[in-house]
Structures are given as C-alpha cells and as structure tokens.
Design goal:
This protein has 443 residues and is an alpha+beta fold. The chain has 14 helices and 15 strands. It folds into 2 domains: 200 residues, no CATH class; 148 residues, no CATH class. 39% of the residues are buried.
Length: 443
C-alpha cells in the first residue's frame, strides 16, 4: 500500500512539471527512434541484397567468359584486323555437361549475339543472349507479360525473343510490345514475352551479374548459333570491336547447397586444366557471396545500432542532470518526508519511479516514432524524384527499403528503460542521503 502511494506521488510530481518531464524524456524518445529507424534501414538494405543474390540461385555456379586484360593494338600501334577470340568454348560446355550431369547438376549455357538492338530510330548496345528455357528457373526470372522461351522455340530455331522491362519501355514506349518486332543488327525478331522488373542494377546482385538484367534480351540458343554465329561486331564512337565468343556464360546448378562449394572446386579444377592461365574465364559462386553478405550485413547492423545507442546514452545523461536539479529543488520536500517517517528506501523508490516512468513513456513514444519514420522513409524516397526542385538530386530508381525487426524494438525499449533507471540511481541516492534537519532548513 505504501509503495502504491509512493508511485502515485512520483506520477503527481511528473504531472506538475509536464514540460520539464517531456524535455527530460526527449533524449530517450530520440534515442529509441534512432535505433529502430537506423536498424530498419540497415536490415532493409541487407534483405534487398540477399534477395538479389538469392534470385541468382544460391545453388548456382556461374562461369563467365571475360576479355583478357591485353593490349588492343599490335606492337606497331596499328589496330588489329582480326577478331578477339577468348572465353568458354562449345568443347568446354560438352566436357562440363558430361562431368556434371553424372552428378545430377543442371547445365544452362548463354551465348552473346548482336551489336545493336533496334526498333525504328531507337537503338541501344546489344545485351542479347541465346539461352535455353531452363534459365528462367535457375536465374529466378519472372515474366510480366506473355511467356518465356519454350523447347519448341529451340527446336524450330524460332526468331522470337523475351525482352527485359527497360528494353520494352525504351523500344516500345507507347505500344504493347507483345507480338511486335524489333531487330538485332539486321535480323528481325518477334516479342513473345516481357520480363518483370528486377532491382539488380544498383545492388549486390547487379555487381555480381555485371549488368542490368532489365536490359537483357533472350532468344533461343539454337537461333543464336544458327542465325547469328560466333562473331559479334560492336561499334562505339567510331571504333569497332570484333569478338568471337562461343559461349558467354554457363550456369551450373548443384543439387543442394551443401554441394555448392565442392562442385565449385571441381569446376575450377576442370576449367584450369583446359584454360591454365584462367585469364579469360571467371567463376562466380553466389552462395559464398550470400554468406559474406549476411556477415557484412550483421556487422553493419551492429555498427548502426551502436551509433544510434549513443543517443540513448545522451538521453540517460539528460535524465540524470534533470533529476539532480530536481533533488536540489525539492530538498525541503525531502526533509519533510523524512521527518514524518519516510525512510531512505522510500525516497530512492520515489525518484526511481519518476525516472522509470519517464524512460518507459519515452521508450513507447520512441517506438511509435521509429516505426512511423521507417515506414515513411520507404514510402517517401521513391517519390522524391517527382518533386519540382529536389527531384533533380535523385534518380528515378531511388529507393531506401526498410525492414522493422522485433529485436530492435525490444532491445531499444529495454535499453531505454535500463538507461533511465541506471542514470536515475545516483540522483535518487543523493536525495536519500539528505540530512532531514538540514533539508528542513533549506529555502
């Protein structure tokens, strides 16, 4: 009963000095808000990066042909007249298929074709590849409209293509691309599908793929081999680049994640035996990058949480300062209470109740603001490019994904409450140590 009276007295004192109580709790409110918001931004970025890597397939191993880092001109300084030949060959593909099909691995090749993708006066540098229908599942591609390539398209060497979202928007800005035609160099193809937009251009997945998948054009690999051949001629700024690459990429899908590292090691040994210098082929293992991304994201979250936690520390110091001032202000009140029988424990309890209530209320308000700010940031950032003046500072693809986590809410609230109580102990002890007679004489 006496404890209840002490709690009521503490609450009454807080209400009597409402503005001071609000300002005292402000540090806790901002600290909790900062922790939740910063952790949600870090967690959202982590989830986006992991989703991008997962979309490539955590069980996939990607072999890619890459141009060797060599001089592009002959010794005399004159431009070479022959095609630059490098990368994976059809023989490499046959050996890989023979080796890994026995290990229940799926193999999907990609072949680069064309120098330009054109429709009327609209054109862009070709990012077209001959593929097989299995690529859709292995690379996690989704079709927004129409359909993806089929086995029948491969068997008939069909002149059809599935185009990326940005290709559809740039070549067919006012038309439905399905059923329409466009050209790769001088070859006419019909659009049978449009891929759903993927956010890989600016994230970890985009760095891994090395290109924006929204600009991809996929056609049957049989058409790529029979109609386009191996030579690719690209012109840029008056210079002409001629390359001969038989296979641009090979996707190898392991039966399980546990097998990925072993299969990657086997694949590396196999390629090294056929390409000893390994200067024209690179091997990418998304699973390893996925694990590294998880570890990096966890470290980043801890750093963000620690930085935001400083706000809670500042809030705790603010509470201690205000409560010390309150002890001086209420010295006579403390003396009267001690004179009529209140013990030191009663005085300590009263001050701890006040700091505890401030911390709890501040924590709850901070939680509400943190959740609201996290949701607001994710909603506002994509709309910033549409603003009249400020929009020039942002790109159309601006986004800041957030992910509110339960542990950040519980941790920030727990730390806020503990901070208030810990920093309230010293003022409470100062108040309890007041000599009743001296306190009663205080003006």
């Amino acid at each position: 009963m006496f404890l209840l009276e002490i709690i009521q007295l503490g609450l009454r004192n807080l209400r009597l000095h409402m503005l001071r109580s609000i300002l005292t709790a402000l540090g806790i409110i901002l600290g909790v808000t900062a922790v939740i918001t910063m952790v949600s931004i870090g967690e959202g970025s982590k989830q986006q990066a992991l989703e991008q890597l997962e979309r490539l397939g955590a069980r996939n191993i990607i072999l890619r042909s890459q141009k060797p880092a060599e001089s592009q001109t002959a010794g005399g300084g004159q431009q070479r007249s022959w095609a630059s030949k490098y990368g994976l060959t059809r023989e490499d593909l046959a050996v890989i298929e023979q080796t890994f099909e026995e290990l229940n691995c799926r193999i999907v090749p990609l072949k680069t074709v064309g120098g330009q993708v054109l429709r009327d006066d609209r054109r862009r540098v070709s990012q077209a590849y001959g593929v097989t229908p299995e690529l859709q599942e292995l690379a996690g591609l989704r079709v927004d409209r129409g359909r993806y390539l089929s086995e029948q398209d491969l068997n008939e060497n069909a002149m059809v293509a599935v185009i990326g979202f940005e290709v559809a928007r740039s070549l067919f800005p006012f038309d439905d691309p399905l059923g329409e035609t466009f050209r790769i160099d001088d070859k006419l193809l019909r659009v049978i599908g449009v891929l759903s937009p993927v956010g890989l251009s600016g994230g970890a997945g985009g760095a891994l793929v090395g290109r924006d998948l929204n600009l991809d054009v996929h056609l049957p690999i049989t058409t790529a081999q029979m109609v386009f051949g191996d030579l690719v001629v690209r012109s840029d700024g008056g210079s002409r680049d001629i390359t001969e690459v038989q296979v641009h990429e090979i996707y190898v899908e392991s039966p399980s994640r546990d097998r990925v590292r072993n299969d990657a090691a086997l694949l590396t040994r196999l390629i090294e035996s056929r390409h000893p210098e390994m200067n024209d082929i690179t091997i990418i293992v998304p699973y390893e990058l996925l694990e590294n991304a998880r570890k990096s994201a966890m470290t980043w979250n801890l750093v963000l949480g620690a930085v935001a936690g400083i706000s809670l520390l500042v809030g705790g110091i603010g509470i201690m300062n205000i409560m010390l001032a309150s002890v001086t202000e209420r010295t006579r009140e403390i003396g009267i209470r001690r004179a009529i029988g209140a013990t030191r424990n009663h005085i300590v309890t009263q001050f701890l109740v006040e700091t505890g209530v401030l911390s709890v209320i501040g924590g709850l308000i901070g939680i509400g603001l943190g959740i609201g700010l996290s949701i607001g940031v994710e909603w506002i950032v994509p709309r910033l490019p549409d603003l009249p003046l400020l929009g020039m500072l942002f790109t159309s693809a601006s986004e800041l994904p957030t992910s509110i986590t339960g542990w950040s809410i519980m941790l920030s609230f727990g730390v806020a409450t503990a901070t208030g109580l810990i920093f309230g102990i010293y003022p409470a002890m100062v108040a309890a140590r007041q000599d009743p007679i001296v306190a009663l004489r205080h003006d």
